[in-house]
């Protein structure tokens, strides 16, 4: 795991960009080695990742990306970073590496801490759920959200976000895949509602 502060020196405010504000729930980009960034979010993804990976390792893959705005008692339970296709079929696919970038953190934030467990096995959904119930809290690493900080980890690392009691926490999350999941070969932008996935037309995909 890698934590880096003052990660980027941007000439624009990502949270104010049309692309960040309108992006669907789950999105995909083939990476800068396959096509140029199409919007401000993909420009930031390139800046975050270009010194962390060798593109030759991901020629058949790319980036899944999404955003999370946590406030008003929001939280996230233990999970691994997977392709959301397992909500509509039996495929439980875990990405290679994941990066969480804190786009904006309010001065009064209370809570919203990322907790990372040592469990990083690439098993199935049933095993993941079972292990989530037996995580040793003495071994958990806790990372406070801080604006312009990123956290890089193995996508199989179990992690969660603690409850927010006050303030707002905005992030940009990305997972890199060595092979593009079938879901994103079919379509790049999706919304999930309970246990169904819906294709989305992202009007602002090519915008700043």
How would you describe this structure to a colleague?
The chain is of the alpha+beta class and 208 residues long. The protein has a single domain (2-196), classed as Sandwich (Jelly Rolls), CATH 2.60.120.10. The chain is built from 4 helices and 14 strands. The chain has helices spanning 18-22, 40-49, 125-132, 182-186; strands at residues 2-4, 26-29, 62-71, 76-79, 97-105, 110-111, 114-116, 141-143, 150-154, 159-161, 164-166, 168-177, 189-193, 196-199. Strands 1-9-5-12-3-2-13-14 form an 8-stranded antiparallel β-sheet, with helices on one face. The radius of gyration is 16 Å and the shape is globular. The protein starts with a strand and ends in a 9-residue tail after the last strand. The mean pLDDT is 92.
What key attributes describe this structure?
4 helices, globular, alpha+beta, eight-stranded antiparallel beta sheet, 208 residues, 14 strands, Jelly Rolls
Radius of gyration: 16 Å
Number of strands: 14
What is the CATH architecture descriptor?
Answer: Sandwich
Main-sheet strand order equals 1-9-5-12-3-2-13-14
Count of helix runs:
4
Taking the alpha carbons of the first and last residues, their distance comes to: 30 Å
| CATH fold name | Jelly Rolls
The coarse silhouette is: globular
* Mean pLDDT across every amino acid position: 92
Which structural class matches the secondary elements?
Answer: alpha+beta
Low-confidence stretches: none
Integer count of domains? 1
The CATH homologous superfamily is named Jelly Rolls
Percent in strands: 25-35%
Largest sheet: 8 strands, antiparallel
State the CATH class: Mainly Beta
Topology as a string of helices (H) and strands (E): EHEHEEEEEHEEEEEHEE
């Amino acid at each position: 795991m890698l934590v880096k502060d003052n990660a980027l020196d941007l000439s624009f405010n990502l949270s104010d960009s049309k692309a960040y504000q309108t992006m669907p729930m789950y999105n995909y980009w083939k990476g800068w080695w396959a096509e140029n960034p199409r919007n401000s979010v993909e420009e930031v993804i390139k800046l975050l990742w270009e010194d962390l990976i060798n593109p030759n390792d991901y020629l058949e893959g790319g980036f899944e990306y999404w955003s999370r705005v946590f406030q008003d008692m929001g939280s996230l339970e233990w999970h691994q970073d997977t392709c959301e296709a397992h909500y509509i079929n039996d495929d439980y696919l875990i990405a290679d590496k994941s990066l969480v970038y804190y786009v904006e953190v309010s001065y009064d934030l209370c809570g919203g801490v990322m907790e990372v467990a040592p469990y990083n096995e690439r098993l199935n959904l049933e095993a993941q759920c079972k292990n989530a119930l037996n995580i040793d809290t003495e071994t958990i690493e806790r990372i406070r959200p801080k604006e312009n900080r990123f956290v890089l980890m193995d996508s199989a690392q179990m992690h969660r976000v603690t409850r927010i009691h006050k303030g707002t926490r905005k992030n940009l999350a990305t997972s890199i895949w060595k092979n593009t999941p079938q879901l994103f070969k079919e379509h790049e932008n999706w919304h999930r509602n309970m246990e169904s996935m819906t294709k989305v037309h992202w009007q602002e995909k090519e915008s700043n």
